[in-house]
Fold:
Amino acid sequence: MAKGRVLSRSEARDRSVNELPPWGIVGWHRLFAQCDDDGRHIADADVLKPLLFPRNHDVKEADVTEMVAEWASKGLVVAYADGDSTIIQILKWNKHQTIRKDRYTPSDLTPPPGYSLVNDEWKPCGNQVATTPQPLAAPDLDLNLNENLDLDVNVAAVATLSTPTPRGDIGVVGREYERLTGHLCPSVEFVALCADHPTDRINEAISRGVGAGKTSASYIAGICRGLAAEGWKAPPVLTAVPNPYFGMCGEVQA
Structure:
């Protein structure tokens, strides 16, 4: 890994970078010197803080956690869980850094799940548009065109297979966590959680975690995985619709 990095003019002019608060910009630029040759680093505050602000006692670990969450919200990094740690990947690393092949050292950290490198930028796989339609194969299905097929069921199955899991809203999830636990939301861990699970599933996991007296991010992530495995879905939201014959609660009006 290189001893130093180059900050390009395009990165310095980047609108998202310049929308960061002052300490966020300082931390962001120092992060480049700490990342490996693939633009990854452990995002846990107890690891990052002494690397980015080694002799600055004004910046706390909580401040670094907020910085990482801010970088993720601006689309500068993606945060994801890898074992007991949270990893960040700089999304435009390859646009800003040119590393000679004879000096390149592959990262020991796992690449971001659900992302691929497209035109020197890490992008969600679900956002890529296929230019050539690919037929869906069903190896165990014997199609007989002379038989009547339930097209509605088949179309629904295809839609289920091709629809990616919606991302969670870190703002909604964070407020729900703080409302139910009375504690600040661990932003970095929950940013990674929102990349893998929708909002309603995470909120359900938070509620179950509070009921069990366990509110750590890793415990809630485990509940989310269990809910996904069992196919849990949020109950439909019922709204009362008034009509001339029944009241809002379904009682016959006199």
The chain has two domains: 9-126, 170-229.
